[in-house]
Batch of 2 targets.
Target 1
Amino acid sequence: MAKKPSIPKGTRDFTPTEVAKRNYIVDIVKKHFEIFGFQPIETPSFENSDTLMGKYGDEGDRLIFKILNSGDFLRKVDEATYARRDTSALTTKISEKALRYDLTVPFARYVVMNQNDIDFPFKRYQIQPVWRADRPQKGRFREFYQCDADVVGADSLLQEVEFVQLYDAVFSDLGLDGVNIKINNRKILAGIAEAIGAKDLLVDFTVALDKLDKIGADGVKKEMSDKGISEESIAKVEPLFSLTGSNSEQLSVLKNLLSNSVDGSKGVEELTYIFETVEALGLKSAELSIDVTLARGLNYYTGAILEVEAPSGVDMGSIGGGGRYDDLTGIFGLPDVSGVGISFGLDRIYLVLEELGRFPETLEQSLEILCLNFGDKEAMAALRLVSQLREAGFKADLYPSDAKIQKQFKYANKRNVPYVILIGEKELAEESFVVKDMESGSQDTYALKNWDDFMQHLKQK
Amino acid sequence: MAKKPSIPKGTRDFTPTEVAKRNYIVDIVKKHFEIFGFQPIETPSFENSDTLMGKYGDEGDRLIFKILNSGDFLRKVDEATYARRDTSALTTKISEKALRYDLTVPFARYVVMNQNDIDFPFKRYQIQPVWRADRPQKGRFREFYQCDADVVGADSLLQEVEFVQLYDAVFSDLGLDGVNIKINNRKILAGIAEAIGAKDLLVDFTVALDKLDKIGADGVKKEMSDKGISEESIAKVEPLFSLTGSNSEQLSVLKNLLSNSVDGSKGVEELTYIFETVEALGLKSAELSIDVTLARGLNYYTGAILEVEAPSGVDMGSIGGGGRYDDLTGIFGLPDVSGVGISFGLDRIYLVLEELGRFPETLEQSLEILCLNFGDKEAMAALRLVSQLREAGFKADLYPSDAKIQKQFKYANKRNVPYVILIGEKELAEESFVVKDMESGSQDTYALKNWDDFMQHLKQK
């Protein structure tokens, strides 16, 4: 007797309904990516290890899934290395490939490899799974999809404006009105660090500030203090924890605070341009707001930093984020290529739509018409009808065996089929078919030769 | 200076045009899967090793990509095993997961794990990548997509009829008229082996017969002889190598030849039913023909065996195949679940469409409208227009910087944009915009407030 099968922890099977719901989100995201002029690329699931290793910090390196070399993988291990029994020395000898950890590094690699064929500015989107050997927990998986859109080779702030519009378009289309698009600028963070005399501690400063949501003002102050930022500096930065007022009021506070910092002033100027332009164009349903505590942990952002919060009342954390990084491809030998991009958090958006009941009901309707099966002769007439309906583009099926009619109806119910067609002995003799509307329970009879009348009826629905 | 990056051998990057072409095929396949009542599922990219190992023969086991355990993977290796330095003993200790090798075994695993929630008959489709550590060569990759549709829990031959119709529907929709759907039945092969007294050598017999296309009649005879099939038996089977005539003529030859074999007669009966039913329903453009040499190498088929050949004149081998297997899930402890399924060979279909020039030209048009950028003020008006066009669903973009107009036009040409919009100083002053039709070269001027007129013009295209 075979062992009961299972799947690796942190991975998931997706049922038909789950796939339909995920595709619903992905299709809307894709549609707007394309409307905004982005083009899809795809990269391999695994990369050469040296493409990925060292790009995500020590923790990242640890979380990258490595693939064992095929065949006799010990062949390349010399006696001395083997004898040392050292995991990391051995890893580089027995594994040369690794699963993609995100879509950004493979994209940078793609741009460098294809730089002569790409028409810059290059607006690409990419929707593919990534893998991380993270400890699985609620909402965190070892295999999950990323949905990224990036522009490389364009310095203009129009890109930032466009990404705000793109977030607005997608979330409005998903029926998620009222998301909060938070924006900050790395130059403002640098300016603040400079203004309070903690310029050298910028990274520690931003990492601490980024945690405001999670650990509160006191926690942030303690962490800054632990990292060696003076009490005096912390006191100077404290007002920022509770910056209030309209966006333009906040911008003018920042402008004054950072007037002596070249970086900081530049950051305020950039943010001001983005706000004014977005305001002039208008948003459908999203809010755009300043959040000077926003750093997104990542050190590669150099300009705008974006993050999207679910509509108020839904406790989900960020459902999207991104920013500008001035040197995307330098790691692969192509310097000075500016990039800016955003991503959508598919799993979290799914949970938000589920919680708010915003998935269209029709997603659970994978079959529009089921013909019941009353035996060989009747089935033949039914199959002919089903073929015609399919040719017209309807999702139609014939129950494959003449099981008890009750069982066939049960199947129709479980698959949420709105119309069931019956061609029994009587109907076959009369060259007709009966259509049962499963919601209302009403029945209509059509002549087989008039099947087109039924289709017209369906199309008007 | 960083090393020039590369990708692992046997893997591919897909450019925007390639993704568009692949999606064109996949979308048509998906559309018909759904019209025929199939539902999508997705399974994880990696499975527990014991789910996959031993399911594809020794050669298959060797070709499965194994994933190194995370962290200190040597922890679980005892001293004695380590000292032996034995690759396969070590593999099971340092690797517990492996990349999916096909979609059939994960599907069987899925069915067993979810048997209580599935409404049988279960018609599922699955389009996901698989990985094989095969030696890469022309048309053979280490990462490639499979597109599978299977029905489990239905014994009826109506399924086989439906799969023939499905192949016909997909290939007709792809503009690949005249594909040849070859069909055979494992029971016929068994009957032949029985009739010639080589019943015990059925596997060797079918494997040899399957190679007729590649090694010719003499090659097949030699291989059969090498495997211990008698000259007398080979003489009996020889007429089958060149079975001719209409399908019904061939069926009647087989019927006579196999009249003493229970299995064989059953196979002929099944094939006859499928042919008669398909003929009664009619096919759009495909041919259906008997091929008694068809075995598809795989030993798990128990009934129908299907394979699709590209239209004559294209030398590509099979572009799809499948069949019935009476015991899909037995390997995971759920016996007697009959399955029947087919798959589409995405990479080969792509090559055929490319060779015949059947991809729609519009696939290379990823952007419908590009607004040129004449500077900040003009760009603002252009951005407003672009936003309106996008809202109406058009793929529109604004060039992100006021680069030389020649450079912007070059970009428009490279991206195959059909319409370029110009809002320069003069147009801004006159509150108008100029539309240049890139194919005809003609220019039209519209008032900015009448942008809807332009959209109506586009929609009529």
Target 2
Amino acid sequence: GGAQLLIAGPCMIESEQHAMTMAKHISQRVKQYADNFLWVFKASFDKANRSSGDTPRGPGMDEGLRILERIKNEFNVPVLTDIHESYQAKPVAEVVDILQIPAFLCRQTDLLLAAAATGRVVNVKKGQFVAPHDMGRPIEKIREAGNPAAMITERGTSFGYNNLVVDYAGLYVMRQHGAPIIFDTTHCVQLPGGMGKVSGGRREVAPYMAKAAAAFGVDGFFMEVHDNPDQALSDGPNQLNLPLFEELLPRLVAVREAVS
Amino acid sequence: GGAQLLIAGPCMIESEQHAMTMAKHISQRVKQYADNFLWVFKASFDKANRSSGDTPRGPGMDEGLRILERIKNEFNVPVLTDIHESYQAKPVAEVVDILQIPAFLCRQTDLLLAAAATGRVVNVKKGQFVAPHDMGRPIEKIREAGNPAAMITERGTSFGYNNLVVDYAGLYVMRQHGAPIIFDTTHCVQLPGGMGKVSGGRREVAPYMAKAAAAFGVDGFFMEVHDNPDQALSDGPNQLNLPLFEELLPRLVAVREAVS
Amino acid sequence: GGAQLLIAGPCMIESEQHAMTMAKHISQRVKQYADNFLWVFKASFDKANRSSGDTPRGPGMDEGLRILERIKNEFNVPVLTDIHESYQAKPVAEVVDILQIPAFLCRQTDLLLAAAATGRVVNVKKGQFVAPHDMGRPIEKIREAGNPAAMITERGTSFGYNNLVVDYAGLYVMRQHGAPIIFDTTHCVQLPGGMGKVSGGRREVAPYMAKAAAAFGVDGFFMEVHDNPDQALSDGPNQLNLPLFEELLPRLVAVREAVS
Amino acid sequence: GGAQLLIAGPCMIESEQHAMTMAKHISQRVKQYADNFLWVFKASFDKANRSSGDTPRGPGMDEGLRILERIKNEFNVPVLTDIHESYQAKPVAEVVDILQIPAFLCRQTDLLLAAAATGRVVNVKKGQFVAPHDMGRPIEKIREAGNPAAMITERGTSFGYNNLVVDYAGLYVMRQHGAPIIFDTTHCVQLPGGMGKVSGGRREVAPYMAKAAAAFGVDGFFMEVHDNPDQALSDGPNQLNLPLFEELLPRLVAVREAVS
């Protein structure tokens, strides 16, 4: 019962105009599921770990926060973004409701502590190199810093080279940490480094992965959505387009009911 | 729509009495789902690749076939068993409806051809070391031998040592082979070699894995069921007990409807 | 000190003429290393688990044994070949000195027992899905059958899809089993299924892998050698050509001395 | 020919006294290998990504740099340390000769650029989740920032949970990037998270791994050394003790000669 977290938005703040447009698209589509999903708008101001130095990174922190604040106010929606170095935690927390720790950085103690100190909810993505039972450690670091509001997001585990696998059984293991488990629908179908200078992905598989996670029983969903993913400035191959997003929501609701 | 395959039975034919008892238990529980599941009784006459030479293997082929035939007749149920060397295909096919190729043996050409030659349905378990896109090869070997009735069963993929992971995205990839995809609910939570002389397992996770597979959309389920798995002569840690089995069936039906 | 085992020959008996030619080539090149290597000629009479059913398998058991016997006599060299079903153990053991168990089959109890019963040396390839500490189990099966002469050959471990990795640290772990550890120089650089209907490979890396194994300290080497690997009927991409083979032998000797 | 890089020192600056003692111990042992190894002293001022928040992190940047500078001057040795956020690059580069990028952070563009901008040598540890062919990307980021002096250090790849494997074949692949390849002798035998709150390790295997890397042909070695590793404040299970370190050096020299 109750509404689940639905973290949705474009991978990157590509422009103020585009971010606003995406917020509008998503807002229109989630409205009718208000009993099922609590929507949180997501977008990154800086893609700080792109495979290559040649690819776009985003508008930067100051401009990004201005745009996120505008969306927060105009759409009356909580917002989430990711931080990369500890100095960013404080200014970002003045705007966003959920601070996200990228998967590669999930063991960086200073970053976790800086995020924890803001008092905001902290969403830690599970490192591609971290065992499910070990995800208790970053959560403890946050709690021991006095912040009880930590979440874990599953986004796939290293499986050979240029491939990820989702260990659904690991979702069960992670429940023991007592933190909400969010399922990242779109990064889990990424093919890291699989296209040379950028990562590949399998957008068409993402909805299946989300439905499976709903059947497994997770506490919320994360998904990147773009109105024209083939032209997206980052993560194009795995972002959902709007028709896939729209079709997915009622399926997730139905599957959740089927296992309740 | 339509009934899905439900391959269910104890891992090993522990005795004639026990196999009959298990068939009765399962029969009683699947009866009410006749519109949803076509039950096939499963049990092995020989555990031919046990981790250790010290552990029980089963009654052998002749005695095992006699028991399977009795169950087939008394319960009016199709039966499935696995074969290990090519000479077994012909005598086994005189009794069983589906010949199963064990995962370790899924690339043994002679075994596949001998199974194909019987004209029976051949269920090939996906090797723990085989990529989803490569599972077309054993299916082709069977088809080129004139037998169109090949199925693929997912039972998990090697992930480091003493662990398996199910690549649900691989279920999508395997659809391209044009063969039914069966989900092995109980071997996929095995921990191979994880208990020294025998393999460990995580029975409590198995129902979640099956529900996730139902949401993903598979063509049938395989599951080992035991009335007292802690005393089972093989695969105890991952076989479903009867309450778990009973609770799982309506959930699988509901999830399937949710994604249809 | 002492000579190490050097198992070398073509992957497949392509023809009587070719097998004889390869034996001659290898014989000429190993002669000067008689103090360092005890050469065993290796060739398969049946590639019983080829990826695809369309590719050549070899001359079969009877014809293959005739050719192996001729090589054994004419070159005064022990011979090794692999078996695939238990009925082959007895006739094969009448000719060959070392029976080899393929990696996929390393847990097939009947095959191990049939090989053990011949009294010949049994070389068990480590399954791509088996942990180093678990390789004690097949060795025990052979010993408990009364045959003390079991060896383990490392040939790489599943690492994601279509790739293998050699866990050199696992060589250390496997020493505890008290059996000689042989390093398979050429299968460890295989890319299983990586070329569609056949497996790919990286021949140019194989000598480096062998030198690393020599430095680690193994008890012998296995390597497939072909006078024209690009035209080989199987495993072309990873077999050594004759120049690579010839250059490798003195390096292995030198490295072994460096760590003694 | 020529001297190879030998990066050696304790994992953490445990105290000024201990760091000085270790520098003295190592200095005495490397002296006689001046033709073979160019020693660089290594120690971390901050273990910034420890598994648990409860474990010691080190003296911090200011105090750490003071101690490294003292060692640099008193022992006339180049020094290396690792940085974790971009603001550290400039002050650290005023003291150290080689800036090291931790493996988890090898894709953090700002950190790589800040390190590159100092003009110092930048040693990038290969992420546990990065394919060998993809390690060209961080090296390019550094070079495109105008710094040609980038190195790659292999320290193992994620292999299942709580385990690493070294893909020696990947060393061959990484040569194409045109940067020196350093082999991390002691982290590659780490068992990440394997002891609950801290990582485990297999110190006794480390020398074998280094000798194998020498035979493979690398450009230098990295190894953590401690006079009492069982009492070390971090990475105790995998640091070399002084006898292992002392025995290893002549072996590495001999193996290198054997393959030259």
